[in-house]
Amino acid sequence: xxSNTGVRIGIDRMGMFxxxxxxxxxxxxxxxxxxxxKFTKGIGQSRMSxxxxxxxxxxxxxxxxxxILPDIDVNRLGLLIVGTESGIDQSKSSSLFIKHLVGLPNxxxxxxxxxxxxxxxxxxxAAYHYVAAHPDKTVLVVASDxxxxxxxxxxEITQGAGAVAMLISVNPSILVINDDAEDYSDDINDFWRPNxxxxxxxxxxxxxxxxxxxxxxxxDAYCGKHALAPRDFAALLFHLPFTKMGMKALxxxxxxxxxxxxxxxxxxxxxxxxxxxxxxxxxxxSLYLSLMSWLEHADDAAGQRIGLFSYGSGAMGKFFTGCxxxxxxxxxxxxxxxxxxxxxxxxDMDEYERMFTHYHAAEDAETKYPESGFYxxxxxxxxRQYSRA
Length: 389
Known about the structure:
alpha+beta; Peroxisomal Thiolase, Chain A, domain 1; 12 helices
């Protein structure tokens, strides 16, 4: 069943945006004195999206919405939610900037959610229950983040930037979400970013173990409650701070699975990891980038059950399931997303380090703006300014 009321609710449209520049992780490895295979095979990454000074959670979120805005009936829209852990203000919601930028009506409700990488999923389920109460309405959920750990740090390889936008509605065209998730939370210090710090503090090995422990807890609980096993899922999709993290979790799920199931789920995992491998960590958007990657690369998945694991440090975990809808491919923008990734500019280490250093001093950076889309144009009187090319 899809909800307590029997109403089918889920994802009707999906859009994405990533900055126009990337760093090849082999270049990063050589510059840091690391064997490239440690990054490409050991971590599972190939490219890392690098934001310009004009790319922030607002501009990227607005650009992700623009990807699907022509398909949205704004007269039905009742709510805009942004999930992020890269907040731009201690008080004002980034969603209000985004709402204004893309021209959404003032009558809609709008707010921001924070819980590390779980914020996008928190927004998704808030949207789900809003639509359950107001089936004539739709909700836009935006997950937008910039993952930063610092030059030369252990976490540098897991950086990235981008946004995913999702329209939530009744009778969705892409994925019906089942309202029977398993949740698990605890007060854990595996990753955090205190006020005033622009880079996160992380205990990488501990965070990996917590991630796997939380996954085992919610996955086993869900399967036990519903008499399911790995063979009953077409794909298992994960929050991917780096792609090997998801493979570690998949191996947990497959501990007692048959060989054929393991082969099938590992193949589908690789399809789901394709975008993340070439973009990097998107924090709140990571799981939904995995979902989009799988939907846009897999063979026809209509009618199939999938499982999704969302994790946010600190920590919160959720396992939920969904059913892929008939004709879902007609409502995806796979070709546009392929071109977005292919058309990016490859930058060298000098340019990467310059962009990283100047990212939080945009008003002092060289005057350079994109040729299309929304962008952050600086600060005037302590107020952030945005424009459209």
